[in-house]
Amino acid sequence: MSVTPSPVATGTVLSLQGISKRFGAVQALKNVDLDVRAGEVLALVGDNGAGKSTLVKTIAGVYTPDDGTVTFDGREVHVTSPAEAQKLGIATVFQDLALCDNLDVVANLFLGRELRRGRVLDEIEMERTSWELLKQLSAKIPSVRIPVASLSGGQRQTVAIARSLLGEPKVVMLDEPTAALGVAQTAEVLNLVERLRERGHGVILISHNMADVMAVADRVAVLRLGRNNGVFNVAETSSQDIIAAITGATDNAVSERAARRVQDKISSTEGLES
Amino acid sequence: MSVTPSPVATGTVLSLQGISKRFGAVQALKNVDLDVRAGEVLALVGDNGAGKSTLVKTIAGVYTPDDGTVTFDGREVHVTSPAEAQKLGIATVFQDLALCDNLDVVANLFLGRELRRGRVLDEIEMERTSWELLKQLSAKIPSVRIPVASLSGGQRQTVAIARSLLGEPKVVMLDEPTAALGVAQTAEVLNLVERLRERGHGVILISHNMADVMAVADRVAVLRLGRNNGVFNVAETSSQDIIAAITGATDNAVSERAARRVQDKISSTEGLES
Amino acid sequence: MTTPVKGSPSEVVAVQDPAALPADLQDERLIASRGIGGAWAAFVSKMRSGDLGSIPVVIGLIIIWGVLQASNGSFLSSRNLVNLTLQSAALGTIALGIVLVLLLGEIDLSVGSVSGLSSAIMAVTFVNQDWPIALAILGAVAVGVLIGVFYGALYTRFGVPSFVITLAGLLGFLGLQLLVLGKDGSLNLPFDSALVGFAQRSFLPTPLAYGLVVAIVAVYVLSRIRARGGRIKAGLSASPNSIILLKAALLFAVLIVPVIVLSQDRGVSTMFVFFLALVVVMDFAIRKTRWGRSVVAVGGNVEAARRAGINVRGIYLSVFALCSTLAAVGGLLAASRLAAVNQSSGGTDWNLNAIAAAVIGGTSLFGGRGSAYSALLGALVIQSITNGLALLSLDSSVRYMVTAAVLLLAVTIDSLSRRTRVASGRA
Amino acid sequence: MTTPVKGSPSEVVAVQDPAALPADLQDERLIASRGIGGAWAAFVSKMRSGDLGSIPVVIGLIIIWGVLQASNGSFLSSRNLVNLTLQSAALGTIALGIVLVLLLGEIDLSVGSVSGLSSAIMAVTFVNQDWPIALAILGAVAVGVLIGVFYGALYTRFGVPSFVITLAGLLGFLGLQLLVLGKDGSLNLPFDSALVGFAQRSFLPTPLAYGLVVAIVAVYVLSRIRARGGRIKAGLSASPNSIILLKAALLFAVLIVPVIVLSQDRGVSTMFVFFLALVVVMDFAIRKTRWGRSVVAVGGNVEAARRAGINVRGIYLSVFALCSTLAAVGGLLAASRLAAVNQSSGGTDWNLNAIAAAVIGGTSLFGGRGSAYSALLGALVIQSITNGLALLSLDSSVRYMVTAAVLLLAVTIDSLSRRTRVASGRA
Amino acid sequence: SDEPAAGGGGAEGKKIALLLPESKTARYEALDRPLFEAALKASCPSCEVIYSNADQDAAKQQQQAEAALTQGANVLVLDPVDGKAAASVVNSAKGQNVPVVAYDRFIEGANYYVSFQNEAVGKLQAQTLVDILKNAGKTSGNIAMINGSPTDPNAAQFKAGAHSVLDGSGFKIAAEFDTPDWSPDKAQSWMEGQLSAIKSGLVGVYAANDGTAGGAIAALKGGGVNPLPPVTGQDAELAGIQRIVSGDQAMTIYKAVKPQAEDAVKAALALANGDKPEAKTEVQGVPSTLLDPIAVTKANIADTVVKDGIYKVSDICTANFATACAAAGLK
Ligand SMILES: Nc1ncnc2c1ncn2[C@@H]1O[C@H](COP(=O)(O)OP(=O)(O)OP(=O)(O)O)[C@@H](O)[C@H]1O
Ligand SMILES: Nc1ncnc2c1ncn2[C@@H]1O[C@H](COP(=O)(O)OP(=O)(O)OP(=O)(O)O)[C@@H](O)[C@H]1O
Ligand SMILES: [Mg+2]
Ligand SMILES: [Mg+2]
Predict the structure, then answer these.
(1) What's the rounded Cα separation, in Å, for the pair C210 and C208?
(2) Where is each ABC transporter domain found (chains A, B) (predicted)?
């Protein structure tokens, strides 16, 4: 089990203790602890199905944990709906994006917090803001007035990320935000994460990309098969160590592949030339 | 425009000429050419919304192009449905996965080509094969008898990839197959791609991860805003060049970020220590 | 081996100067369309891609009218068209509620029973108990509200499918209607009561009708010009004044022709105007308020709406309540027009017709797609068929079959135009 | 500052020896459940998570039976239960077709009219035209098939929503039924005809009924044991023999008790057995054949099914055809039981009841989730309510309300048990 | 079940099932059921009524008959949804030696039949309409016919009866309509259409019952037709009687339910005791009592529905109809 210094250290905005969650016969989370501090980027990593998204959804009020406590800003909270989590100041970009396919980009961006003039939606102002937000993220979206169903994978993800920029959250959780993004957009999102940190937000970043994690995270928490499997300080760890914690072994497909790579390269080039 | 040596070079299994596709007011593809040879991994890269998935779907028979011709195995073909594409020998892993959420993993894996004994589904054999396939991909799926709706993002993607291993296709198209995968699973998929090449299949691989692209691809075709923007030989190109072709500029968010990185790292560490 | 060709980006794509364009037109993949010619080109392209909104239904309606007029010359007479407006108001009002529940992806099978119950309550309190008419109406509508809230509560608390809840409602409130009507069974509403007068004999004075048309067009033009100014100020594209004027002219034509025709007989029915006003208000509520946006979002993807912090329960509750309320109001309109209430008021036909009207008008049964105007269009289609065939004195067996054929015809036109969209794979 | 703690994986997770376990139980997150105790634990956990299949509906049915028996002692008499089986067969058969279209995410509103039309055709050809009974039946069923193919073609060619197609069918085939019946309107089927005999007076000989029960249980046990062997050979987990025997005993009890009870009166109706056989065959087709798998896939996600190379058009066509065919067969059963056909055969009540039966039995209106057994359970629930309330001499108004209340009660139990699943966010 | 009709003696403790066809017409539950129960109570206090209403569904009625037999009914008094289809019920009742009284509508094979015949009702409606028109000095002109539901077998009989009179009356049937579900608003819509289709000379409207008559009258009034042509009706609903008082409706058919119910009770008790019920006539071999339907017009309201205690004058003459009542001499 990971040992973090103290449950509620100074500056800790969000702290989880002993979170468990079971789905039918599958124990998705077992006794998970996690601390996030203000002005820190905490990377949450783990293999597929390790329980990262389940943990994020538990914090965001989508699931209620079977067990364990959540402390936010020093108070124990029981978040039973996403609306409550938002009210607390937790913004989330879900892995499954959760967009309304039948609505256009503008409507999705402002869903649940539409701008209004009196009681009437202010479409013009929303559209203007949308373009601004999307430009910030280098998004290549031809029109914000088409339903998001017709957007490409990366465009959809950009819309979901842009959503989280509205409002003034204390904690931002990004569940694999750059998975579908192009190189330029990924860079912008990493910039964004750094800006969030600078503004003193706590950020939970889930990613399978070790390079990105090492680039922006301060600490890395590893989940393995639904349990804590260590917390690492980025400055003092190598990505090899983290990968070992993720896969649960030091010799694994990744290292094997790395070792084989040079070999392979040569033989395949030979194959082509023959 | 990119200039490929000759439309139907020796060994070319699939060749596209002048493909255009329009959605409402958006010109998603304009006059796109592409050649795939047997025993070659062709990476298809481009910014978000560049039209990569649209191109893949056009080849797979999901969309019919407005214009242009598709040549498969030397014959011009008109693929009007995914079933036809499969019959030709084109297997596809779609970016939006296209799984039936209400069916379990086994049913999804074998959808459309169920194993049978007589007229009755052979569930036992299918389940056994499923476990084998999933093990090959290092999948961490607790049970193959739960609906795929309850799988994690990476688990779902693994299922979609495992699907394409069934049957004996000539061309395999993988649309961002590793986007949601963990490090180990990604390595397995890249291994798989190389195995496919070795067995003489043509592989189209879409990815935003330049490291992966440089590692497994032989050639890289770049799309930009729906048009061809060059074809590169991996052996003779740097990823910088490719990124420049993708973003359409040599100074872009990626290079800026790379330049700023060292600077940032220092200041953020300082910030933490203060 | 390939000869690597490094594409030089600036050569490859002919970039227009982006700064010169509004923010929403800068993407080079957008196919430009400016001015009236551009608008026409955009319209044609929309037509091709099957994204036509209510136009196909309107075309279907026009064809039906043509066919019916051809079979009996009185169909398009002013007198009969006035009848048609009177006949459509009640059904349309009920269908409007159905549009709302369908937008949510739910269903209400009980609108007929609710309309029957509300009219029974109104009749019994007004006629037998001598309540003042306003109180009787209020009571009946309040019952509608309560029923809807009850449905909403059952749905959100226990998760019973709305199909089953409202099926139980269909039976239960039919029973209650029989109970309320008691042993008399049938009640007359006095012909000289305000309600019957409103439904049967109240028509807009012709000058007022014309004035209304002019006012509506004026409001339209003004709001469009204001929006245009706002968009330009925000750096967004805006339709040129020529197009606004063109559209205004079209709107004027669409409004003035019926008024002229109807005025040759009794005129524009107040009850129909009341229904139109309901449609316009509801359309505004759906498209321009936060509540309406939430309804469409919930209908599209409940889970996404929930995660966006929308009060999903509140939305369900309000929509079920509105649907039942509109059903109650529709029941009152139907009863006033008939000047009587009996056990068969709001029979099962009403349910099916109201749902059919919404669907024919283009609202999806699967949630998230639809418009208040589909209640208007659908009710007109259904009542035109009934009305037109009633002029023909057919055998009932033939009448049923012709109704089916005409209905299918009207909707096939719509579906054919939508087909391209479905075939595009993401619909 | 954090003290970095490098987790040592082998310490952290207590790994069981994976090689010792079957392939499908190796994941350490799986909560182990072995033997009878384990099966019970797994059952309780399923119960908690609301994943109970048809058990809540069965509980609802048992509660309804208890309530009805308490209000009138004759309800659970053998005689009345035999009546109940006779009453459920026709509705159940029609509902079985509805289950199929619902699995696809479509609807058929016209099953009532189709059943009426088919019975009218059978009656007219058999009684008036003196066709041999077999030919008359065949003709009527063939009409059902044709109608379904027609629906399927309209749906797949033009993309008209099935709601509208079948609404048109509801009207059109009602018209045709009236036309076929002509001005006589009502036709009696001779009491001594084979069909009426089959529906009214044909019961399984008691020994045969018992034999059938034994045979079914034997087939079940054998197939289970064979599957067990196969699974073990394939390196997969298999339920222990004790559980197989337990389940077989349960099955035996579930089958033998009704047979004993029914045998005290006339016995097990052949028509009901015919219906049960249809259910079992359809269940097998849905769960164990490629066609059934494709139906469920299309209902879950058409686009995914299309991309998997499934012939989606063929699936739609076959399901619509089967639904109409079953409706036609159901119509024949209903007519034979009544020994008469008239203009109101297959009235609108049949549509609603058949759809309600499927939904109450647990089939989703939104496609991809359901089972053939829901037709059986739903038909039993509906007919139990009607049958039980008929024993109580209630006024119609009260009867309607009680029906609604009981219906709601039955389904709420089911919904409550499902709620947890919905609340889990991914349902 | 026990042997019902066996043994003579009193009719103590018998169960009589009363199976009525529908609930959308007020008469069945407002009149037939209470009158039947009262009559039974009077002649056999210990007897019990098993009651069911079939909501116009023949299959449901069969089910209800089976339920009655299950409960040990000694006699079925059956008002069939479909007289022909009810043969099946009679058959299964006979199988258990339970006699059947056909109530209101004829059933082949029943043990007794008491009714106002449907065809006679249609004839009377049409005849009254023709008489009213002739009295008003009209011998030709257009008549619109609003029949009952096309899916109701009884409606066809009313229609046939009416046609038998109207077809040779010299008046022209300009248009005819089978009203789905007897629905007044459909009748209204149709009538409205006819006002534009039949350009002139509409002299009378045949409406099969009071509900459709109400729809027709609403259409005529809404269409500004003045004076109203005579409109027929049936069922003597309160609303219909009120319209007659106010002069909007010309007539309705009143069936004296009370004698019918009493006669049915008498026959049922006789059958329960194994006796033959008394009957004056036979219809297709079934001993029958045929009662006469009465045409109610403004002139004879007081002598019919009021006299029989169906409605009190105060029921009819509510505030809205006070003046009309006074004019009609109702108090
Ligand atoms: N709603 C659910 N019902 C049942 N099982 C679930 C549900 N949600 C998650 N699971 C299971 O819980 C485990 C953890 O899933 P989770 O989505 O949290 O993984 P993850 O760490 O986010 O993986 P990935 O990197 O692939 O996104 C998986 O095995 C999954 O099958
Ligand atoms: N069905 C559709 N309807 C309308 N527009 C569409 C549709 N499919 C794609 N598009 C548009 O076509 C363009 C290309 O989309 P595509 O999905 O091919 O991009 P992509 O290159 O795969 O991007 P990504 O890297 O984000 O997956 C996008 O602008 C998208 O909005
Ligand atoms: Mg995840
Ligand atoms: Mg893509």
Answers:
(1) 5
(2) 14-250
Taking CB atoms and an 8 Å cutoff, what residues of chain C touch E240?
A: 186
Ligand lying closest to the C-alpha of residue B154: 1
User: Does residue A262 belong to the interface with chain B, where contact is any CB pair within 8 Å?
Assistant: no
| B182, A52 contact by CB (below 8 A) | no
Each residue's pLDDT, cut to its tens digit, for chain B (274 residues) gives 344 443 334 588 999 999 999 887 788 999 999 999 999 999 999 999 999 999 999 999 999 999 999 999 989 999 999 999 999 999 999 998 789 999 999 999 999 989 999 899 999 999 999 999 998 888 888 889 888 988 999 999 999 999 888 888 899 999 999 999 998 899 999 999 999 999 899 999 999 999 999 999 999 999 999 999 999 999 999 888 999 999 887 666 666 776 665 555 555 444 444 3
Judge: D163–C408 Cβ closer than 8 Å, yes or no: no
Distance between CA atoms of C16 and C237, rounded to whole angstroms? 16
E174 CA: distance to closest CA in chain D (Å): 21
Q: With H, G, I as helix, E, B as strand and everything else as coil, classify residue D204.
A: strand
Q: Rounded distance, CA D95 to CA D374, Å?
A: 9
Tokens for D325? 């065919």
Residue closest via CA to ligand 1's atom 2 equals B150
Q: Report E:231-270 residues touching C (Cβ under 8 A).
A: 237-240, 242-243
- In this structure, which amino acid lies at residue B193? V
Q: Ligand 2 centroid vs B51 CA: distance in angstroms? A: 5
For chain E, say whether C264 makes contact (Cβ under 8 Å): no
First to last CA, chain A: 53
Type of residue at E50: I
- Report the neighbours of A using a cutoff of 3 or more CB pairs below 8 angstroms: B, C, D
- Considering only CA atoms, which residue is closest to atom 28 of ligand 1? A49
Q: What are the residue ranges spanned by the domains of chain A?
A: 12-98+171-237
| Cβ of B142 below 6 Å from ligand 1 | yes
Q: How many residue contacts between D and E have a Cβ separation below 8 Å?
A: 108
CA of A48 to the centre of ligand 3 (A): 7
Rounded to an integer, what distance in angstroms lies between the CA atom of residue E77 and that of residue E74?
A: 10
Tell me how far CA of residue D350 lies from CA of D91, D109, D331, E40, E148, in angstroms: 7, 9, 10, 35, 21
Q: CB C353: neighbour CB atoms within 10 A?
A: 23
- Helix, strand, or coil here: B76? strand
Amino acid letter for position E311? Y
Q: Please state, in angstroms and rounded to a whole number, the distance separating the CA atoms of residues B175 and A152.
A: 12
Buried-state track C60-94, b at ≥16 Cβ within 10 A, e below 16: bbeebbebbbeebebbbbbbbbbbbbbbbbbbbbb
- Ligand 2 pocket, B58 CB below 6 A? no
Give the SS3 label for residue D7: coil
Spacing, Cα A206 to ligand 3 middle (Å): 8
Are residues C272 and C89 in contact, defined by beta-carbon separation less than 8 angstroms? yes
d(CA D296, ligand 3 centre) in Å? 27
Q: Tell me the mean pLDDT in the region A129-142.
A: 88
Span B12-98+171-237: which CATH code? 3.40.50.300
Q: Are E316 and E301 in contact (CB under 8 A)?
A: yes
Chain B environment of C34 (Cβ under 8 Å):
none
**What type of residue sits at position E69?**
L
User: E175 near E186, Cβ under 8 Å?
Assistant: no
Q: How far is CA C332 from CA A43, B123, E191, in A?
A: 62, 59, 21
Residues flanking ion ligand 4, Cβ below 5 Å: A 152-153; B 53, 95
8 Å CB contact between B42 and B171: no
Cis peptide before B147 (omega within 30 of 0): no
Q: Could you tell me if E87 and E109 are in contact, meaning their C-beta atoms sit under 8 angstroms apart?
A: yes
Q: Which two three-digit tokens encode residue C135?
A: 């109180």
